[in-house]
Amino acid sequence: MTDTDPLLSVDDLHAHIATADGTVRAVDGVSFDVQRGETVCLVGESGSGKTLTCDSITGLVSSSQVDVSGSVTFEGEELLSAGERRLRSIRGNRIAYLFQNAQNALDPVYTVGDQLVEAITFHRDVSDGTARERAIDLLQTVGLSRPAERLDAYPHEFSDGMRQRVLIAIALAAEPDLLIADEPTSALDVTIQSRIIDLIDDLRRERDLTLLLVTHDLRVVASLADRVVVMYAGNAVERGPVEAVLEQPGHPYTQSLFRSFVGQGGTNGPDRRTETVGRDGSIPKEGCCFRRECPHAVKACRGDEPPFEPVAGVEDHRAACIYHGDRKDARTVLDTAPQLDRGVTDDD
Ligand SMILES: Nc1ncnc2c1ncn2[C@@H]1O[C@H](COP(=O)(O)OP(=O)(O)OP(=O)(O)O)[C@@H](O)[C@H]1O
Ligand code: NI
């Protein structure tokens, strides 16, 4: 392990779900690295496989019907084949995970302090008194006033935003290196979303956290991310430095995602929740996963899966689209020929 090795490396990750109607390839070959200290944002519409990617990284896929394969390494150590005990130790101590829809993650019958102290003593062999002091520190860290009093309150006495702050405090209890936060504000009132995002960003800076953040909000991407991974139908279709991806999105899907964001006046991010793309019939099994929706699709898009090619010659900005790489005419095509050969790819 050298300093330049990624803290987290995800390579050709698959999560296939066995259902009554056959196998759903909900995550279908996702690769990206997260370097120590950076913030990587995972974006993509609802159902594209973001949560399942996070669950697979942390070994928390809850169902035996989900088959996870590929490689996930943390500091060079393979997690997918790690034993349950080893995994629990890495997950508990080094990687913290803020779940999507965690509103009910706090137990209503225990005080906030009990739950925080439990998280602290689970990770560190400290006395109850020390744990209580650390719990007060942590509540203060996440921006709760009168933390000592709050320890004896029950979760229902807190607002949604305060509960999310407590969950962040619990996630920090182990002093993790990597925080995976899956849409940490989607359940919150819009007026407090940015405060929670600011808190996460401040904590990241203060505590040298590495952050993998799932978000629908492109404003969050623009202000927090160092690098972006764009998912579509279980595939990572584009990845790269945030400026490059935002200014010159290379994949036609990313372009349409960003256009829909701009179309909404940039208020709510690329939120296409109501338009969940079915993983069954409409996503082609061969070739490019986006070709049926793609205005630039040509016959070649039906062939092999498109390789991850550099966009405009930028080595670490890549898109899984045949219009990149050596195709010198890529920009011209993507900019000017939106209806190219439309229709030839719709049968397979
Ligand atoms: N346990 C499961 N059984 C069956 N299908 C599942 C299961 N978990 C996830 N899926 C399916 O896998 C796909 C990916 O789901 P996932 O929750 O990862 O999407 P997401 O990108 O996180 O979406 P959102 O933005 O709505 O949170 C979806 O089509 C979902 O219906
Ligand atoms: Ni999700």
Automatic annotation (TrEMBL):
It is an enzyme of class 7 (translocase). Its main location: membrane. Its EC number is 7.2.2.11. SMART domains: AAA. It is a peripheral membrane protein. Keywords: ATP-binding, Cell membrane, Ion transport, Membrane, Nucleotide-binding, Translocase, Transport. It comes from the Archaea. The complex is composed of two ATP-binding proteins (NikD and NikE), two transmembrane proteins (NikB and NikC) and a solute-binding protein (NikA). This is Nickel import system ATP-binding protein NikD.
